[in-house]
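User: Hi! I'm working on a homework problem where we have to compare a predicted structure to a textbook description. Could you give me the structure for the chain below?
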Amino acid sequence: MIQSPRETVAAAMAEMAVLRALQVAGRRLLARRSRAVRGPLRTVPPWELHVHLPVGDTDLALLLRDAWVIPEAVGLPSTMIEALDQHVRILLAAGLGYRRDDLFKTLSRLPLEQLVLPWDAPAGTDKAHVPSK
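Assistant: Happy to help. Predicted structure tokens:
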């Protein structure tokens, strides 16, 4: 379970990244549907649309294209992004809704204390990531 301040902040960043990826996928998923399907789903948040609309394994790459550009830009480690991407792909393919506890289980498998997170990298190094202006 998340305990240290470092783990808490990393979990918050991971949660935002996962919800953003689900939002990107949900908007693309809905855009591919007819007006008759989109209408009743107007009130469903985009990050929950995959629970109502089936997602095929072959759709995952297209739905998640560029979904991780912001986490990459702010410097989340590639190891973390890969784990989050796998987490999101499982949710999409299985039609499962986002649950914080499930994300915590995914994060618990990562060596958070060993990863260089954005606030750990010395300024002026290639490990220091600052979003482009």
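For your comparison, note the following. The mean pLDDT is 88. The radius of gyration is 16 Å. Good luck with the assignment!
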